[in-house]
Amino acid sequence: MRNNPILVVAIFSAIILTMDAYAWWGIKKIIPDLGRPVQRIIKILYWIIPLLIIPGLAIVLTFRDDIPGDRIMFYFHLISGTFIVFYIPKLIFIVFNLFDDLIFQIRKIITLRKHRINNPESKGHKITRRKLLNQVGIVFAGLPFLPLIYGIAHGRFDFTTATTTRG
Question: Which stretches of 29-167 are DSSP H helices?
């Protein structure tokens, strides 16, 4: 596999695009109330990350022998750091989304697709359990985002040494 960067990029691309597609499916359940322009901006911002990571990985792996040794680590850290920052939160969101889909499928099997009777007296906008679970998933997925960015950008250089003297 080391001698075939195309295979590595293909496998990596399939994995992250599958993750992205499933996470996007969950995000689409949350954003239907937003306006069309906001939905379009969210979609562009969401899909720009894999569109940068996959070609970046392909370029680095394809031309790794031509890149100077001191620069190869810079590119590796840039790609891996971006991957970690954006895909750890997506994995957390995917867990919530899987849980939501599992509950939905169980309820669907139990109720045997019975139609829910709408209460005409209910007024106001109620949030469904599915949407609430997805929104909680987004919040929990976003929690590690800033600490990951700080750790990658500044924390890796923030070393302190402690000296102790024995008396």
Answer: 36-62, 69-111, 129-142, 145-153
User: What are residue 33's phi and psi, to 5 degrees?
Assistant: -80, -15
pLDDT at position 20 is 92
pLDDT digits (tens, 9 = 90+) for 59-73: 877 777 787 877 877
Tokens of 72: 């190869």
CA-CA distance, 92 to 22, in Å (whole number)? 12
Task: Give the dihedral of Cα atoms 102, 103, 107, 108; nearest 10 deg.
Answer: -40
Domain boundaries of the chain, sorted by first residue: 5-113+126-157
Q: What CA–CA distance (Å, rounded) separates 21 from 167?
A: 62
Residues 6 or more apart from 144 whose CB is under 8 A from it?
Answer: 88, 89, 92
